[in-house]
Amino acid sequence: MKDCYRAEVLTKHRLTPSMIRVELGGEDMARFQSSGFPDEWVRLVFPSENGKVTMPDLVDGRWQMPAHLPRSPLRPYTVRRWDREATSITVDFVVHQGGLASDWAMNANPGDEIGVTAPQGKYAPPGDARWVLLVADATGLPAVARILHEKTCDRLFIAHIEVPESEDALEDVGSFCDVNWYTGFGRVTGSTRLPQIVEAIQLPAGSGYIWVAGEAKATTVIRRHLCERRGVPKDCVTAIGYWIVGKSRD
Predict the structure, then answer these.
(1) In the prediction, which pLDDT does 154 show?
(2) What distance in Å separates the CA atoms of residue 51 and residue 72, rounded to the nearest whole number?
(3) Cα Rg, the chain, nearest whole Å
């Protein structure tokens, strides 16, 4: 059942120079249930202009604000960790100047209220995949980290991740697979060079599965490159647009 939950900030700390980790919990989060996908994301419901959180309604498969109440903005974010016993979720925010969610994370304090919608995800490698390739910019790093931490098979895992600075690389991620780090995210022309990174990747032999997350136009270009030029079957590529240059995404 699709649902929405009221949550509050439990803890917050700076994870890397460009990322802040926030743990969200509270009484209502005891009802939260994982989707079962390791790349699952939720829509966070931020306070409206009056400082209160207006919870959305699910109408025809889309979250909508009640017309008679102040509108709370929604933004999609990865569930980095779900703690069933503590009834909390962990969300990692890439922080920068001028972003609604980024500003909220930088100024959040324990007890601050926020809404959380029911999660969904897409990571689904075929059973016969001999290897998994994960490609993401900094916004997809939390999902990559969770996929690797929760993997239960001995397939070959390879990751290519673009972050703003070398200090943003998470040391524990590299212990779970062959990880390749690239810097410049947010500073290069167009904010990302994931398409160029993918063009230079040597794919392993045999059947595999490729999961891509990042800027929407970039992920579309990558999917086309993999399927049309590399011959990867379409059902073996999951490409997700997490954000769009110059636009907010509800």
Answers:
(1) 84
(2) 9
(3) 18
